[in-house]
Structure formats: C-alpha cells, structure tokens
What we know:
Blueprint: H1 2-32, E1 36-39, H2 43-51, H3 58-67, H4 70-88, E2 93-98, E3 103-108
Parallel strand pairs: 1-2
Antiparallel strand pairs: 2-3
Amino acid sequence: xxxxxxxxKHKQKLVVTDRAxxxxxxxxxxxxxxxxxxxxxxxxxxxxxxxxPSILTDAGFKxxxxxxxxxxxxxxxxxxxxxxxxxxxxxxxxxxYSAKDDHATTYKL
Length: 109
C-alpha cells in the first residue's frame, strides 16, 4: 500500500514539474522574440518600472510619472505609446534597454 502511495506522489511531482517546465519554456520563447526598446533612461528607472503597477493603466502611469524627473516624463509618455502598440500587436513582453547604463530588462505587457 505504501509503495503505491509513494509511486502516486512521484507521478504527481513529475506532472507538476513537466507543467512548470512547459510554462517556463513558453515564457522564454516569448521573451526571446520580444521587441527591444532602447531608451535614454537610467537602469534604476527601468528597474522601478518593473516594480510599479503597469504604466499601461492610468494609476500606474500616474505613479511612474511622480517618480520621474521633468525631462524623463517625455520619455515615459513615448514609452507608454510604444508599449500600447506592442500590446495591441499581441506581444506579451518587451525588452527595455538603457543606453545610458548598458542594462536590459524585460517588461510584461
């Protein structure tokens, strides 16, 4: 009886592991084929963008605009327009690249 229970648990673990690997592989493929947006924004701001609510929502956009300096706001407005376009085109992710700091990060749309 215990042998069957262990075998069952092992099969469940394998199913979960296979499902997880499949999900990760899909995400990797989406990220690999994601468009790249090169910007004159620092790496720190790009990291903050990833940690804030999406700038595609009004609340997230407002929050990010509050975090930015006056000269960065124009870039954020332009970035939001690009992100909206890529989302309409069916992209799940984009790469944000800081030309200032040679730093890239993914952004989930």
